[in-house]
Recover the amino acids of this structure.
């Protein structure tokens, strides 16, 4: 009996070692380098940190499975990060450095204005660039190397504008008396969104008042007072983290706790909500690529919006490399352009001719500082975009 | 004209005065170091940020100390930091042949402190929950707790500084050092020690500004970028080197920038302070109250 047991154990051991040997026979080629240009220092470093976290998580998952398998063998993914400090000029240098170090795809930069500034550089370097910029001007570049796994402001504004009108109509029976305050940052993100808001409200015969603040303005009390004096009774805003908190504070202090307010995805970001008190933004709405109550990925529902977006960008590039069976930049670009129906954390990818990959977004309401998804809009099925 | 008819002017006055006192405190801090060393400390924005992070990031959030204890520890820590900076940076810099080098030195110091703050506490802004965030409403005018504290503390600081300089031996020694360092040394005053003490007071004041600004702007590395520059403008407008001038200049700029938005697009709010400073530099470079150094 002992002899039989020993033989069986030996067989199991040999089999186990065999499996191990088979595992070790994976042939590894050169690593695939992903380049991230993002603010690591300076005022915008928080967004850069989220971007890094999202990418590192996705890369770690892929590398834990051995990396990416191509026909010439396996390739581990290596992430190189360069600090552009949120500066357009510096960003040009960081992108060139990343490409010179072998990056087959560039992730970032953080802002729309920086992406616009990189147009010529990316055409020259001929490397795919993927990020979360939302400006409506980016598709107009018709740059075949730039992609976004995110709804752009043109689509977000349609949803936010409609939500304001719907909420007001539900309360008052019609849009009579509605005057929307468009309070936006004075950078590319804010001004391009404001242009879309104005066009939308003009088309729908809704009165509006517009005002613009500096990107990092921390005191918006004067803006709120002027808007009140102008008769504003509902609000839309496309802005950034510090200013979003400042607007919420100024409105609360002005006693505007029962107004209809909708904001760009910044409001759903954890670090932005952490700057606020619950009563400042209770019931405010926003569009969001990802929110704490989101269960689309079936995973821990705590990642931040930017983290989820850069996780998704990374998934898109990994999938493109697999489909192309190559990590040559041109092959990756062509594979992205043919992507239709690929699921990522923030939705389903449908590549259009230029730039846009995603046409769906959720509407969230803030409840006790937690963004709660109250509905999703698929622009592809509802409005015919993308597909 | 209808927009003017609907405006709550009193709210603009309250906000303008409160912001003015913040600028006044910043100008006071500039004045302290300028009087002591002859240098304009361009690192003071980072000093303020460091104070806010020490208070909110370390003493309140990490160590969960009561607000009052956290405030006291922040002031002590910032004073100690001031002595260190004075010894390592400001005292050696003031002896350089060209003052421009010294100015650049303080700018580089600012960058170093800013990045150390980011590395130590991380890049994500945060708020100090429950600290000076409530408000009271009188009619349609809102008085926030933070505004009331800013005004009260600013008055106490400026009056306290005046009393200190006029009625204490150490204060009088500081005035002597600010007026003539060589003569002060010949009179037996330890110039280096006096400068260290002034910078320690200045750093503690920065800590106090950081604490007061935390409920207004939240805590981030760029939380007082605008306020720090406007404080400099307040100093120039009020009269650089004068503590009362700092108050007058601060309140004037606070009010002008609030009421300026009634006549210009709101986005130009931050420009008002700089425009006023340029006008004063051209027409009355000595400021409203011509400085008599402390």
């Amino acid at each position: 009996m002992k002899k039989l047991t020993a033989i069986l154990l030996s067989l199991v051991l040999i089999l186990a070692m065999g499996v191990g040997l088979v595992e070790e026979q994976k042939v590894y080629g050169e690593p695939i380098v992903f380049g991230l240009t993002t603010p690591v220092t300076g005022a915008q470093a928080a967004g850069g940190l989220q971007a890094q976290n999202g990418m590192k998580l996705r890369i770690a998952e892929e590398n834990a499975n051995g990396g990416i398998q191509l026909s010439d063998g396996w390739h581990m993914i290596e992430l190189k990060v360069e600090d552009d400090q949120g500066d357009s000029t510096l960003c040009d240098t960081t992108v060139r450095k990343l490409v010179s170090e072998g990056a087959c795809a560039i992730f970032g930069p953080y802002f729309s204005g920086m992406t616009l500034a990189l147009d010529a550089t990316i055409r020259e370097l001929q490397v795919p660039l993927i990020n979360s910029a939302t400006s409506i001007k980016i598709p107009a570049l018709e740059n075949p190397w730039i992609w976004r796994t995110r709804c752009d402001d043109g689509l977000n504004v349609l949803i936010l504008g409609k939500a304001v009108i719907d909420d007001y109509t539900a309360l008052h029976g019609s849009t009579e008396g509605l005057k929307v305050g468009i309070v936006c940052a004075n950078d590319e993100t804010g001004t391009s969104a404001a242009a879309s808001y104005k066009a939308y409200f003009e088309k729908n015969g809704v009165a509006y008042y517009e005002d613009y603040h500096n990107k990092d303005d921390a005191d918006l009390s004067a803006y709120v007072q002027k808007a009140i004096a102008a008769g504003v009774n509902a609000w839309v805003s496309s802005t950034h983290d510090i200013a979003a908190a400042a607007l919420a504070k100024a409105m609360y202090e002005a006693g505007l706790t029962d107004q209809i307010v909708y904001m760009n995805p910044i409001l759903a970001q954890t670090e932005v909500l952490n700057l606020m008190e619950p009563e400042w933004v209770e019931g405010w709405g926003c569009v969001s690529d990802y929110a704490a109550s989101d269960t689309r990925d079936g995973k821990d529902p705590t990642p931040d919006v930017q983290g989820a977006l850069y996780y998704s960008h990374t998934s898109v590039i990994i999938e493109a490399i697999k489909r192309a069976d190559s990590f040559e930049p041109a092959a990756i670009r062509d594979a992205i352009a043919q992507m239709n129906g690929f699921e990522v954390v923030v939705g389903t990818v449908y590549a259009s001719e230029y730039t846009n990959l995603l046409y769906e977004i959720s509407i969230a309401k803030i409840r006790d500082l937690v963004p709660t998804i109250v509905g999703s809009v698929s622009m592809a099925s509802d409005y015919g975009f993308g597909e | 004209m209808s927009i003017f008819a609907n405006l709550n002017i009193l709210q603009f006055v309250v906000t303008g005065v409160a912001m003015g006192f913040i600028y006044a405190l910043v100008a006071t801090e500039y004045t302290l170091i300028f009087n002591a060393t002859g240098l304009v400390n361009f690192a003071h924005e980072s000093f303020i940020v460091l104070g806010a992070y020490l208070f909110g990031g370390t003493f309140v959030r990490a160590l969960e100390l009561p607000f009052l204890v956290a405030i006291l520890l922040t002031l002590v820590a910032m004073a100690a930091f001031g002595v260190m900076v004075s010894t390592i940076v400001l005292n050696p810099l003031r002896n350089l042949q060209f003052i421009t080098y010294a100015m650049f030195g303080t700018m580089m110091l600012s960058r170093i402190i800013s990045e150390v703050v980011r590395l130590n506490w991380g890049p994500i802004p945060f708020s100090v929950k429950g600290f000076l965030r409530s408000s009271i409403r009188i009619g349609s005018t809102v008085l926030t707790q933070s505004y009331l504290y800013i005004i009260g503390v600013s008055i106490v600081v400026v009056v306290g500084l005046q009393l200190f300089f006029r009625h204490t031996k150490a204060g009088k020694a500081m005035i002597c050092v600010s007026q003539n360092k060589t003569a002060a040394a010949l009179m037996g005053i330890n110039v280096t020690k006096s400068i260290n003490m002034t910078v320690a007071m200045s750093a503690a004041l920065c800590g106090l500004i950081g604490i007061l600004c935390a409920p207004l702007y939240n805590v981030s590395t760029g939380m007082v970028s605008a306020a720090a520059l406007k404080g400099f403008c307040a100093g120039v407008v009020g009269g650089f080197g004068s503590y009362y001038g700092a108050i007058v200049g601060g309140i004037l700029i606070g009010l002008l920038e609030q009421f300026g938005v009634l006549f210009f697009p709101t986005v130009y709010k931050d420009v008002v302070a700089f425009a006023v400073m340029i006008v004063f530099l051209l027409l009355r470079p000595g400021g409203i109250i011509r400085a008599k150094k402390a």
